[in-house]
Every structure is written in C-alpha cells, then in structure tokens.
C-alpha cells in the first residue's frame, strides 16, 4: 500500500513538472469567456465548451434572414456563380415570368411549356423578385400598383398603390425598398415587406434603371430622356450628385463592374456602353457594341458583360474593355434580357413580338424558344444565384 501511494505521488509530480516545463495539449484551450465560440475551454464546472452561455441576440431592426452586405473577398459577384442558389430559394422550381402586358405568363424553362398565368387584368410591365426571393412584385404602371405574388404558390396578395412604379429596388441590407416613380419624379422609400411609405426623395429627372455601389450606400440611376445619371444617398435620403452624358446620349440599363470601380451604362442612341467611375462619378469613356444597345446582363463567371438591343447581342470583356463577340438575335428586334441561367450556359431574353428564348453564352446560338401572347415588356428568370436580390432587372449580390 505504501509503495502504491509513493508511485501515485511520483506520477503527480511528473505531470505537474511536465505542465510547468511547457508540455501541453496540441489543441489550444482557453479560460471560460475567452477564445472563439467554437473553441474548447478549461474550467471544471463551467459551461459546455462548445456552446456560448449567452448567445448573441439579433438586432430588432434586422429584417428576417438579413446577411452581411460586403461581398466575399471584395468581389461584387462572388456569390452569384454557377449553381450558387441561396438556401431559401433552392426548393423553388425554375421558372420564366413573362410580363406580357395583360398578365404574367409562367413558363418552365426546361420544356418551354406554359405552367401557369396570374395577374389577369393587370397591365404588367415588369416582374421583380423580393430581397429574400420568396415572392415577386408585379409592377403595373397603368393602374399605379405593385402586386405581390408568391414565388411558390403563384397566389397574389392585395395590390399596393404606388404612383407610376417604373423601377423597384432593395438595399443590400434588406431594410429598405426604393421605388422609382416617373410621375412625379421621385424615389419613394418604403418598407420592403409591406411596401408602406416611409419617405420620398425628389429627383431632378425621371429615373428607371439603376444599380448599387459596392458597399450599397448609393443607388445610381439613369434618366433616359434627360441623358443623365443621378446618384442617391440611401441613408441620407438625398440626391448626392448628377452627371450629364454628352449630347444625344440616352442612358438605359446599368451594371456595376465585378471590382466595384466602374458603372457600365447602356446607350441605345449611341449604340454602346458608357464607363462611369463609381467613386468620382465621372465618365471614363465609351465602348461601341451595336446600334440600339439597351439591356445588360453579367456572365456567371463575372468576366463578361452581355449587351442586347437592335437585333444584336454583344459580349464585352470586363478586364480588357473590348467586344469579344457579336451575335445576331432572332427577328432583329429589341429583346430585353431576363437573366443568365443558374449554370451560366444560357442567357434568357424576351422580344416584344412575343418570342421568349435562350441563347448560348458561348456561341450565341438559340437553344430554346417559345411563343407567348401579348407583347412582352419584361422577363424574370427565377430563382437565380445570389445571397439576395436587389430588384431591378436581374440584380443579385
């Protein structure tokens, strides 16, 4: 018995000496309250080592499902690559929503067959997904309403009265909806879930198409008839600047470059795109693409900008700032883009003559097409890759 006690005391002394001499666990342990949330702690009788004793409570002002605004790695489209559908939208069926003037035609993009129709009686001009992508907003500029539609059910809610909803946008943090109104010329600040009005910002011109700066603090919009761009300070609810393009310009759709440094603005009158510095708000130059350039879309790898209009689809290399391909479009019409497919292989477009089709983003060849009734004025491909939707025509981050 004495020998056993002596051995125990010797073993304890050895362990203590090893601890003092620097021998330790290969895994770093921390005292309770120190280290990271998923790191082990030392403390007998303390809280469980892999669980916070007092979990952080979300801010009351945060909208459901809010995510960080800053893009991963500083790249604007880091979360919109092939197949990067947000978890909340992965179980939604892929659909094409065509605003045909008298309602919304719903088409299965795989079979090109109609699978539904809603909004009968509404003169739909465009379909915009909500920030969380769970519902769609149908803009009716004739009856001055926005109609909410369930992305899964197809059932529509009560129309919301909005004066001439020419464009609908959502701030990257999901807390604010911005409605571009043509009559009167202003931006209406609204609740993103109920569309209840909060404030209104007068504009110097009638704006419609737009995109956000890298951090989301500003919304840059084009005023086609005035040949100008306007920059809205979202938090300050004021116009922070305007820039008038050279005489004869008619700016339309615009997109932020992948590095966040430049806005590319389509110009149907001059047949190309303007490059505008996102920081100084000064024009950097003009790149001819094809007559009638009006619609823009970005490839899934964020290397190319697609410019449609005037019966032509042009592909522009962002880094080289040059046209790498020009492809003729069916019928030579003014097709409007609705978005790039999730796998990045096809660009969907709608022609006012009633044709909806997909072209290869590699060759420009028509892959699939379908005829619809009415005169399509807008197309929405849903869902698309991204953490959230910014509204407009296929804006995702």
Description:
- With 397 residues, the protein is mainly β.
- The protein folds into two domains: 19-54, no CATH class; 76-396, Methylamine Dehydrogenase, Chain H, CATH 2.130.10.
- Helix content is 5%, strand content 40%.
- The protein contains one helix and 30 strands.
- The strands form eight sheets. A four-stranded antiparallel β-sheet has the order 3-2-1-28, with no helix packed on it. A four-stranded antiparallel β-sheet has the order 4-5-6-7, with no helix packed on it.
- The longest helix has 20 residues, at 2-21.
- The model is unreliable at 14-65 (pLDDT under 50).
Low-confidence parts:
14-65
Report how far apart the termini are.
Answer: 72 Å
The count of β-strands is 30
Q: Return the CATH topology of the largest domain.
A: Methylamine Dehydrogenase, Chain H
| Percent strand | 35-45%
Report the sheet with the most strands, covering strand number, pairing sense and barrel closure: 4 strands, antiparallel
Overall 3D shape: globular
Strand order of the largest sheet: 3-2-1-28
User: What gyration radius follows from the Cα positions, in whole Å?
Assistant: 27 Å
CATH level 4 superfamily of the largest domain: YVTN repeat-like/Quinoprotein amine dehydrogenase
CATH architectural type of the largest domain: 7 Propeller
CATH first level of the largest domain:
Mainly Beta
Q: What is the count of helical runs? A: 1
The secondary-structure class comes to mainly beta
